[in-house]
Amino acid sequence: MFSETKEGTTRILVPKQPTKSIFYNPKMELCRDIDIAGVAAFVSSLPSRRASLRYIDALAGTGVRGVRIAKEVGLFVAINDRSESAYELINRNIELNEIGERAKAYNENANVLLLQKNYDFVDIDPFGSPAPFLDAACKSVKKMLLITATDTAPLCGAHSGGLRKYDAKPLNTEYHKEMATRILLGRVTRDLCRYDRAIQPLLSYSKGHFIRIIAGVEKGAKKADDCMKRLGFIAHCFSCGNRFAFSCSDMLEMEVKKNCEVCDAKIRIAGPLYVEAIKEKRFCERVHEGLEKRELGRKKEAMKTVATCINELDIPFYYDYHALCKSMKVPPPPISSLIDDLQLNGFSAGRTHFSDTALKTDARIDMIKDVLKK
Ligand SMILES: C[S@@+](CC[C@H](N)C(=O)[O-])C[C@H]1O[C@@H](n2cnc3c(N)ncnc32)[C@H](O)[C@@H]1O
Ligand SMILES: [Zn+2]
């Protein structure tokens, strides 16, 4: 019924056939590899007391995340799943890795557990939307939140549901993966603020079907107020592709233009969402160093993703230049030469991990088109 597999230096029993009650997705090993280096980098930046730090994998499936954190990072872990067969397997995986003194399995509703106790690290890795767990996670967490979302359709604006689940309106643009990441971060920012906690996004990324945010959390009403200032909106013109971001305070203080300043068509607004940096460069560099040193199954891909995040410009959207070239009926140049040309014209420009055919730049759409026409 079970077979043994290995992730990092951890042995894990997983169901031989996918079952309804125990979930294991080998494709998420990349995400777990990045988590290991991410949690380790964060712990090493704390002023000691590693021994007392507590992590919870609130929706654990086989328990692979929590077991790996106990074994490969050395934290005390609570590993929870409401499915009884998952709970039994978690116990077997704890035993298999001989981490019984650092790991405890629970068979509870995640929200009940999180509302009862504070944890330094809270990991929410659900099927689909994390929305039903965000309030309890934000009440429980003391130092770091790790959250996955796989419900990219409502977050991206492809379905209704963005407003219902995230209190925000997404737009279905070509940079929907980043919009989804920022809408999720915006919702988490507001949920944390209700408990006088402030978010510090450390590494936020999207790969394939999932979005993952890794964020530091600090206590304090003043800090929480400050991070609310990092929320805002993105205005997008579906006629010419112009886009710009503005903060919530701008929204209150200035009159936001209703028409595009490039082509005068009506602009549409997405948000509220997180409009400032979604990663901390130095943290990402430390994660990258950690990935390099560790034994990991998806090391190469993990290092490539994090390396791109390190250098990503802190601009809240990107341009799919292949789509842009197609609409202009010009052949797409190599991405590196377009980035060079934009920089030669005085703009910032660089790649984004969100897409291989996209770039971030502070050049306005008409400037990008001018550079592409040359
Ligand atoms: C996507 S799986 C977890 C995968 C796991 N974190 C991993 O990395 O392999 C989601 C799990 O959440 C569990 N679950 C769903 N709702 C829950 C709840 N309210 N409380 C506790 N567990 C829940 C399901 O039984 C399922 O095992
Ligand atoms: Zn326009």
Please describe what this structure looks like:
The protein is an alpha/beta fold and 374 residues long. The protein folds into 2 domains: 2-311, 3-Layer(aba) Sandwich (Rossmann fold), CATH 3.40.50.150; 320-373, N2,N2-dimethylguanosine tRNA methyltransferase, C-terminal domain (Phenylalanyl-tRNA Synthetase, Chain B, domain 1, 2-Layer Sandwich), CATH 3.30.56.70. The chain is built from 15 helices and 15 strands. It has helices spanning 29-44, 64-73, 84-96, 110-116, 131-140, 152-156, 162-166, 176-193, 221-228, 248-253, 281-293, 299-311, 321-328, 335-344, 365-373, and strands spanning 2-7, 10-15, 54-57, 76-80, 103-106, 119-124, 141-149, 197-207, 210-219, 231-236, 243-247, 268-274, 319-320, 349-352, 355-361. Strand 6 (119-124), helix 5 and strand 7 form a beta-alpha-beta unit. The N and C termini lie far apart (62 Å). Bound molecules: S-adenosylmethionine and zinc ion (ZN). S-adenosylmethionine (SAM) is lined by residues 23-25, 28, 59-62, 64-65, 80-83, 86, 109-110, 125-127. Zinc ion binds at residues 237, 239-240, 242, 260, 262-263, 265.
Describe the largest sheet. Answer: 7 strands, mixed
Q: Which structural class fits the helix and strand makeup? A: alpha/beta
Share in helix: 40-55%
Radius of gyration: 21 Å
Beta content:
15-25%
Shape: globular
User: Number of DSSP helices?
Assistant: 15
Give the ordered list of helices and strands.
EEHEHEHEHEHEHHHEEHEEHEHHEHHEEH
Overall pLDDT:
94
Bound molecules: S-adenosylmethionine, zinc ion
At CATH level 3, the topology of the largest domain is Rossmann fold
User: Which strands sit side by side, in order, in the main sheet?
Assistant: 5-4-3-6-7-9-8
